[in-house]
């Protein structure tokens, strides 16, 4: 074969390879596209895709995703991976109750299909979002090898990184878009551990190369000491305990509230628990849903206060949404190294704790027409969707997240740590303290930030692109309580603009 013929032949092979790749990508898109949404009787505002990515062929470990394409400029807008916490809770929590494309209206009859309306404050207004059920065993994600349901921080980060690499191979048209990772609650662990996996992969030349720019954590579990010591100062600052009790607790516990060193300290902390008994820990301004029974919580490795057992006992129900399940760790019980019980595993004889009503999510996601429309596994594989699962055995094995944040911000990645300032489960006092403890120079002094020409909270900016932000009046799930304000800070952060 002549040199010119060989060159022509090589060129033909190259274009054939490109054509086949495009064909395979197109077929993947076609099989994953969501053409209609039961409960929504209008044209979708953007393209939606849903399906599975296999992260372990040998075990048949499959992670389920729901992908909402940006309603703005899909070819340019950022792509954001959203993760809910638990551990063991589905990211449909964020999709249905927080910042997804729809607002869900409960059916008139119990078990009926909810009615869906467009959400004017959906985060898909300014970005494409991947809602991922992780790890395997959560939501619609599953494995054919049940040993995979014993997992932890490190394995979850590794699997999710594998998911991202394969996902971007399926959707290569989004590879050049700025990519961010976001989440809340126990995703305060998921997000930085995954972000560091992504950063190390980029440094090592792993393909495809992700255009990773930064990450966001909302009311996130971070560090045993800072999280564990956050409640008492929060309760005092919010007027939930007296000056006298605060001084007594400080004197007896020497500032160590999460691991009392004496019986006297423990006794004073019990008095704190009694004072905030029956307050909604996820938003102290809101009532709890009135449960019909008092549940009891058990844990093998840490004492849980009596206040968490009686949450939900109130005469006035939640006005809009009556579910608080699976958001973060119980009151004054920091997540420690070792086995972390999932929420259903904490309960005795019941799948849901007090202050809980997940009727909308359960009725929609367990509807056969919905499951078929969004391409979930058959019921013989994943029998039902639960907001939070008891299927997994989860180990906290990555330690404090502070070292991860230091590593990532020192590499130049942007980080936004945001807190609803009325959340008592992962109080802003802890997040504010650990961000300050890193020791970075303050480059944007504490100041109010605005949304709709009103003070929406306060922010402080540090060197190396680390920002701490509060959202005034918001609880544990910020976009649920303050959707307009959440969309405002979200789009400013993604765009690299001051908040």
TrEMBL record:
Localization of this protein: Secreted
Primary residence: secreted
Q: Which controlled-vocabulary keywords does the entry list?
A: Carboxypeptidase, Disulfide bond, Glycoprotein, Hydrolase, Protease, Secreted, Signal, Zymogen
Q: Name one Pfam family in it.
A: Peptidase_S10
SUPFAM superfamilies referenced in this protein's UniProt entry, alphabetically: alpha/beta-Hydrolases
GO molecular function annotations of the record: acyltransferase activity, transferring groups other than amino-acyl groups; serine-type carboxypeptidase activity
Biological process GO annotation list?
Answer: proteolysis; secondary metabolic process
This protein is called: Carboxypeptidase
């Amino acid at each position: 074969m002549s040199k010119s013929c060989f060159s022509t032949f090589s060129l033909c092979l190259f274009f054939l390879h490109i054509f086949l790749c495009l064909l395979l990508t197109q077929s993947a898109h076609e099989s994953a596209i969501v053409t209609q949404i039961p409960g929504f009787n209008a044209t979708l505002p953007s393209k939606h895709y849903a399906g599975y990515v296999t992260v372990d062929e040998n075990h048949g470990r499959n992670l389920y995703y729901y992908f909402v394409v940006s309603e703005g400029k899909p070819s340019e807008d950022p792509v954001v991976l959203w993760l809910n916490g638990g551990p063991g809770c589905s990211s449909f929590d964020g999709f249905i109750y927080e910042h997804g494309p729809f607002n869900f209206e409960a059916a008139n009859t119990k078990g009926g299909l909810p009615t869906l309306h467009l959400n004017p404050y959906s985060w898909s207004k300014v970005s494409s979002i991947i809602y991922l059920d992780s790890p395997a065993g959560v939501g619609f994600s599953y494995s054919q090898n049940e040993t995979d349901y014993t997992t932890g921080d490190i394995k979850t980060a590794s699997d999710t990184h594998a998911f991202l690499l394969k996902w971007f191979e399926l959707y290569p048209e989004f590879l050049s878009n700025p990519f961010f990772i976001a989440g809340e609650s126990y995703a305060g662990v998921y997000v930085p551990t995954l972000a560091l996996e992504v950063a190390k992969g980029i440094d090592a030349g792993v393909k495809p190369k992700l255009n990773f720019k930064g990450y966001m954590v909302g009311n996130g579990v971070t560090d045993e000491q800072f999280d564990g010591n956050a409640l008492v100062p929060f309760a005092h600052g919010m007027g939930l305990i007296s000056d006298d009790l605060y001084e007594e607790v400080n004197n007896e516990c020497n500032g160590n509230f999460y691991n009392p060193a004496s019986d006297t300290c423990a006794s004073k902390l019990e008095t704190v628990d009694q004072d905030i008994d029956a307050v909604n820990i996820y938003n102290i301004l809101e009532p709890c849903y009135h449960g019909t029974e008092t549940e009891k919580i058990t844990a093998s490795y840490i004492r849980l206060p009596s206040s968490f057992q009686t949450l939900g006992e109130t005469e006035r129900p939640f006005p809009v949404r009556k579910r608080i399940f699976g958001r973060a760790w119980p009151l004054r019980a920091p997540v420690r190294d070792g086995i972390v019980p999932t929420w259903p595993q904490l309960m005795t004889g019941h799948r849901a704790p007090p202050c809980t009503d997940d009727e909308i999510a359960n009725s929609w996601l367990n509807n056969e027409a919905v499951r078929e429309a969004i391409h979930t596994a058959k019921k013989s594989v994943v029998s039902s969707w639960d907001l939070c699962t008891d299927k997994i055995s989860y180990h906290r094995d990555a330690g404090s997240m502070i070292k991860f944040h230091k590593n990532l911000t020192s590499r130049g990645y942007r980080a936004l740590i945001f807190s609803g300032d009325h959340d008592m489960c992962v109080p802003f006092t802890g997040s504010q303290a650990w961000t300050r403890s890193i020791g970075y120079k303050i480059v944007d002094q504490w100041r109010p930030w605005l949304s709709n020409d009103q003070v929406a909270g306060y922010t402080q900016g540090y060197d190396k692109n680390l920002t701490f932000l509060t959202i005034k009046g918001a609880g544990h799930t910020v976009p649920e309580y303050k959707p307009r304000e959440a969309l405002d800070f979200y789009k400013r952060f993604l765009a690299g603009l001051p908040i």
